[in-house]
């Protein structure tokens, strides 16, 4: 059994890293909003989905023009990702303005309900647009960076199988790391980042220190949603096919990653995302081997939820979070 | 003039006369016209009018029971659309009961449960497995499928199974609060669906994604219930029981502790309310009604598969509760009826109409915008608009009013004694 596990390990690691990087960046959006508003932004998964659609739309549009063939693909990719990120960032700001800001003093159940509503609206609006534009709502993007690369793990030791991946894997990984490093710098080293941290610590005191709280919250939504949208582009590039319903489950899993790392903690979200991606791929590949065929790969979502429940019961503050006591 | 009109409308007897006229006209038009959805809906709406009339509660209950049990089936039996009306009415009943169950959890106890359809699934599968040869795959004894008489026992068994599922889900979940609870219950809802979807190996419990077909129809005294109008009466009976039970619960000690927990957990605990027990009971009781209706659903459809129990269903029930008014029984009934009719009648009728317009070439509306596909958008808009502008819902929840002087007179003895003690103290 161990032999079988080791044999597939290199491929599992590569797939898990790609998925984990995506989870990690989406989880950042959840964790930032939670840190500043103590609110689960249910619609964040849909922002991710919207990003995937906007990105794919731009790719298809740009590829259709003749002059774009002269531009290297990498530059094209950077242009698309920047445009998409700014679009989804604006959607995020608008969402906060319409659905969350009027409810800031309402009971906590109410903003959660508007968040569900917003995510339904986004799903259907995107579906309408996609269906009106192309006739069907499942889109397949142009294949970019699709050269296969194989790494000979078997030459290291006969225990391992060879692993192969597309070039897009490297792009996903590098972009995700760049985004995370940039965010970490933004939050920890810049003036705006300091303001965000101050507001998340204590909103009232921060506003006394002449911080414009509404502006800071809008910025947080912009940054989180821009990251989500950019990840959507990465997802569409890595996996090819997208539909309007990918955001919900992926958003949930990213949320699980955020909880796993400690919600409100930015580095925790990154760690949680990578761990969750690796574990999920491991489960998908090996669950049926480990349980003697009783549970197959279709239980991988159950596995992710089981992680969430276990974390919430035994370590609700997450891997890197600090426990907080409830004040009366 | 306006004052006269209002005073006329406020008068009890004028209300009764107008109401009777309304009911007679709508039921006659429903009976005489072949297929009139509007008359059917108006007849149902008469119940809402009845709710706002100045009558005694008992009279209202008797009249509404009369309309639902006798008048509605009689009036709609005229045309060929009888069974489809009864089908819609049955679905309304099923969803109303489920929404009332969720109302206990969300509205009264304040625990946001986004996986509520899981309990419905548990109830449905508990009957479907034993009323088909499916059960012989794993049961060492007994003859399967069970006969149609077992349906009545399974109403209780399905409820109990769902309640057990509710407690099992509740135990780990209740350690987490607020928003986390929503996510975890949502996860559980998905888990149960995935499990039912894959439980065809190693032992075939649920027949996986293929679903369970040809469920034995329920029977009573050797009479098989197969048509929608049979199930209409079954649903109505269970619904009556559900409404009665929910109203009793709401005004019981348990109901008051749910509300206390909803308003402030810590304060409630300090007043001596056992938190875990109260919350678990909310989960279990809410699940029970849903499980019972699951049994009815399985028997009515005669076929179930995991696609009937998706997340969208859970959210639909949540929309019903939010729309009607969280914690308000009449509100939730109204919300559930509105959403179900919107789903089953209005959207399909609109789609047919749009298709006809397309065919006749009046206007062309692309297929992507057909009303049947707008369900999610409508739900989303409803949720956002109601949460922003009317979080209390269509018919807001009211706390029971107690007459102060009455309470005082019934407790006058004890109060007198307290007063005398106080006076004694003053004297000393």
From TrEMBL, chain A:
UniProt key word NADP: no
Main location: membrane
A Pfam family: BPD_transp_2
Annotated Gene Ontology cellular component terms: plasma membrane
Subcellular location: Cell membrane
The keyword Transmembrane helix is assigned to this record: yes
Any one GO MF annotation of this record: L-leucine transmembrane transporter activity
InterPro entries for the chain: ABC_transp_permease (IPR001851), BCAA_transport_permease (IPR052157)
Ranges annotated as spanning the membrane: 20-40, 47-68, 74-94, 106-130, 167-187, 216-239, 245-263, 275-296, 302-320
GO biological process entries: D-alanine transmembrane transport; L-alanine transport; L-isoleucine import across plasma membrane
Bilayer topology annotation: Multi-pass membrane protein
Keywords (A to Z) from UniProt: Amino-acid transport, Cell inner membrane, Cell membrane, Membrane, Transmembrane, Transmembrane helix, Transport
Family, per entry: Belongs to the binding-protein-dependent transport system permease family. LivHM subfamily.
UniProt name for this protein: Branched-chain amino acid transport system permease protein
Organism: Ureibacillus acetophenoni
Lineage: Bacteria, Bacillati, Bacillota, Bacilli, Bacillales
TrEMBL record, chain B:
Residues annotated as transmembrane: 12-31, 37-54, 61-82, 88-106, 111-130, 150-171, 178-196, 231-249, 280-303, 315-342, 377-397
Main location: membrane
Keywords: Cell membrane, Membrane, Transmembrane, Transmembrane helix
GO terms for cellular component: plasma membrane
Membrane-topology descriptor: Multi-pass membrane protein
Compartment list: Cell membrane
Molecular function (Gene Ontology), one example: branched-chain amino acid transmembrane transporter activity
Keyword Disulfide bond attributed: no
InterPro entries xrefs: ABC_transp_permease, LivM-like
Matches recorded under Pfam families: BPD_transp_2 (PF02653)
Protein name: Branched-chain amino acid transport system permease protein
Organism: Ureibacillus acetophenoni
